[in-house]
Amino acid sequence: MARAALLHLLRYRTASAAAAAEPLSAFRCLMTRSNSKTPAAGIKWAGFCRPFSSKAALNDVIGNDTDSSVAVMEPQEQVDPFSLVANELSLIATRLRSMVAAEVPNLASAAEYFFKIGAEGKRFRPTVLLLMATALDVHIPELSPPGFGDTLTIDLRTRQQRIAEITEMIHVASLLHDDVLDDADTRRGVGSLNAVMGNKLAVLAGDFLLSRACLTLASLKNTEVVTLIATVVENLVTGETMQLTTASNKRFSMEYYMQKTYNKTASLMSNSCKSVALLAGHTAEIAMLAFEYGKNLGLAFQLIDDVLDFTGTSASLGKGSLSDIRHGIITAPILFAMEEYPQLRAVVDKGFDNPANVDIALEYLGKSRGIERTKELAMKHANLAAAAIDSLRQSDDEDVIKSRQALIDLTQRVITRNK
Fold first, then answer.
1. Among the four 16, 286, 298, 371, which has the fewest Cβ within 10 Å?
2. How many distinct structural domains can be found in the chain?
3. How far is residue 178's CA from residue 165's CA, in Å, rounded to a whole number?
């Protein structure tokens, strides 16, 4: 009953908010930062929006907030991000199925489970990375010998595709391990691997995918990129460990939650985007813009995921809804609700083994602005991601322009999705 009431109230609030909403592309959102050197730590999660401008956007990304420009980004014709790289996605999917093949039949079946045709999902992360590779407008030296430029372009693109493949293997490995830790029974609308083949094989399959990713990473022979991707794996483990904490001062901290979210979700996207830039020989400034896009897109993605855990259905999500709260995982909507209703903390402290406590928490959430504030925070990060793309140097190349617009369009899709 509490869940049904929550959904009814949220639909009413969403409809009311939509009537008065400003176009997302017309605004960017700012956050005040401390001097923390940790990518996500030290961020104070209170921001505001003001008119979008390229210079202001760049100042946000690099940490200056001195621009007062009010130029508004002109709306662009929308393109389908996935169709722009459809051919490459098909090529990558074929290579991935080949790369995860194993000699031991059971391990082969387990490793291939989410790479089979029809079970691979949308390939969101490879799409972002392929679009980023084009959006960065790779420059081929003018004095290259005849034919050398084309060869260099093809070789670079193949190496950037490898980053997309590595990222997808790491992502799927993390899903396999997460499902074991969460005792999940569904994933992407089908039975989770641990439910179908058991926990041991699911863990081994995840380890196998990580080993394949490491082999592919080593073949790139780029120390800086290897370091970045190794950091991703470290962050994934750190984030999962942070999620297991039972200390109240950390469980109920928004800053702790956002750092955990960066580690578990945004680190993979941000460091992979940066790797694509580094492989192309871009400057540190351009590489950081790629990093900022990936980081903020990843944070926005996870914030909306946390909303959908309350508002979505098992059918639309491809996994169980209310999964987090039933496992005692406290996410942004509940954290924001606790700020309005401190008495909710006592309910959370009791845990959610008792279904009645889940209902009580949902009642408080429904009365609060927890869902709305989480969506607003996701929008702020989506705007910061778009700002990073807007800050890239101008280009007249049609493919570059389309790819940049597609990356900006993805920021919109992330925060408006319902699954």
1. 16
2. 1
3. 20
